[in-house]
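Lab meeting, action items carried over

1. Structure of the two-component assembly. Owner: GW. Status: complete.
Input record:
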Amino acid sequence: MAPLTDNLFNDIPSVLQEEFFQILAESETIRIERIVSDGHATPPGEWYDQEWNEWVLLLSGGATLKFDGDADPLVLKPGDHVMIPAGCRHRVERTDSRQKTVWLAVHFEKTG
Amino acid sequence: MAPLTDNLFNDIPSVLQEEFFQILAESETIRIERIVSDGHATPPGEWYDQEWNEWVLLLSGGATLKFDGDADPLVLKPGDHVMIPAGCRHRVERTDSRQKTVWLAVHFEKTG
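Predicted assembly:
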């Protein structure tokens, strides 16, 4: 059988008006996604508040995350990964404006 | 709350007699793992035959995978990812012997 394969840095649109989301694999309990940001940030005053857990890895570029209630933002460089439990309010304060930021996000159902 | 964070390229032992496995996040239905290989390969004649699906991403170094029944092996470079469904027999023919190969593996329960 021919396995499904691709490269995370392939086929990135050169102009991104909005963040680019692409599902790489999924099942009933998980979704593996590539996200490409190009200077994008969460709109002012808005927070992500998700029902599923999210484990996220920054692969290129850079970003700053803010977690609700934390004084200090979290600055991410390539290779950095963060576990964001379901219900943990967070926002993307900044992504690199000089190069594209490629993320891998693994969303998975909250259990137990 | 302080989110759990680390870098995929941190804390890699300089000498690896065996492949290095580390769980980064897990639940009842998923396990996210860092694997570091240093010239390791699956022993001759052995195959992985897993009950869970595995989505794997090569982050540094290089490797060659072989899928049972496929004539051509699959050569992986950084950024390459492969979906290996449960029950798909495969082996690692080779990993780079000049530098460490860092993998991210997402194991998830077969559903449906």
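2. GW to write a short summary for the group page. Key points so far: The mean pLDDT of chain A is 94. The beta strands of chain A are 4-7, 20-26, 30-37, 53-60, 63-67, 74-76, 80-84, 90-95, 101-108.
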